[in-house]
Amino acid sequence: MYNIALIPGDGIGPEIIREGKKVIEAASNQYGLKINWTEYPFGTEHYLKTGELLPDSALKEIEDMDAIYFGAVGDPRVKPGILEKEILLKARFYFDQYINLRPIRLYKGVPCPLKDKNPEDINFYVVRENTEDFYVGIGGRFKARTNQDHLEVLRKLYKAKIQVDFNLEPEEEMAYQIGLVSRPGTQRVIKYAFELAQKKNLKRVTSVDKANVLTDIYGLWRDIFEEVSTQYPDIKTEFNFVDAITMYFIQKPEWFKVVVTPNMFGDIITDLAAMIQGGLGIAAGGNINPEGVSMFEPIHGSAPDIARKNISNPTATILAGAMMLEFLGEIEVAKDIEDAVEKVLSEGKVRTQDLSGKSSTEQVGDEIVKKLPKA
Ligand code: NAD
Ligand code: IPM
Ligand code: MN
Description:
Elements: E1 2-9, H1 13-29, E2 35-39, H2 44-50, H3 56-63, E3 67-72, H4 82-94, E4 99-105, E5 123-129, E6 133-142, H5 148-158, E7 174-180, H6 183-199, E8 204-209, H7 215-229, E9 236-241, H8 242-251, E10 258-261, H9 263-276, E11 284-288, E12 294-298, H10 315-327, H11 331-347, H12 361-370
Parallel strand pairs: 1-2, 1-3, 3-12, 5-10, 8-9, 8-10
Antiparallel strand pairs: 4-5, 4-11, 6-7, 11-12
Helix pairs in contact: 1-10, 1-11, 1-12, 6-7, 8-9, 10-11, 11-12
């Protein structure tokens, strides 16, 4: 039996999580596996009603569970950043989920926007650092005659030669945000990427950065990549600048096997990578702490533009469920789910509007359940 925390969240979150839960239960049942779900209401409605985002009491409770299954948060009624930072990022940081693993795979039958690219050409992993970089939340915004402390912090941290009058006028308002790369934080994620390559018998690890401009933080990132790579002499390595890798993802996706990237670039390039595998509706991810509580979710957001219409694609969430089961050691159950997804996608009869179909969210979930092999 597994204890799973369920956070459906906002927008399409509840409808995709409903299908994910349905498929996980159906697949697990065949192996006599029981899932004990604890559902939490965190998200916009709960916040607007109670002012509560993700309380420490819930985090403490979840510490004893096996994993978190997460939909999405974000709602146009709430200023950007509140729910995203205080719910999603809070969980990633609290549980020190330092790896964000995002497999990129074009399934058979899924329309690919790249001309002449087939399933065998698009099949790689992005390992995104998940607790550092510009996500550490060190920053400040200050204007006329306020927050002089922030300016001091900025000067110290960046040794900035900023010549400004402390009595700023409102039109001189300023803001800063610090990106942080640490040796242990970088070592552990890069090591994970190499271990993954080794385990899956993949022969190349690509490192992403912008070391030609942000020379301090990504200079350190590069040094550590080089150091770690010496422990894996059989695996080829390369550096790509982040701007160039967006081009290569389109031009030669077949080149990539394992891509390891700092947090923010990882966020950006995985939405791009999702598109070459057929869109956000299919792209799954896991926020992983190999020794702690991990959290599995689609990489897309709450899609407020299509919420509550029962037309969103639950496939990414269902595949995230398979990743969760695999992570828990239920390899066969996970494989059954992925195989069923593959069948439904390759048949192409039941699919949602993002894949040019007419089926509902629920019909896709039901069809995947129908295609589960009998254990
Ligand atoms: P989004 O990923 O929600 O949507 C981008 C586009 O993709 C939209 O047109 C949407 O309709 C479509 N789309 C996304 N998922 C889909 C699915 N399963 N099926 C079909 N179409 C799908 O990104 P956005 O619009 O930039 O952000 C909306 C909100 O979600 C914001 O508040 C943002 O902060 C938040 N967000 C949350 C997460 C998360 O909780 N993990 C991730 C990304 C964005
Ligand atoms: C993602 C999302 C999040 C991120 C946001 C919502 C905090 O875009 O999971 O990709 O930037 O990591
Ligand atoms: Mn993102």
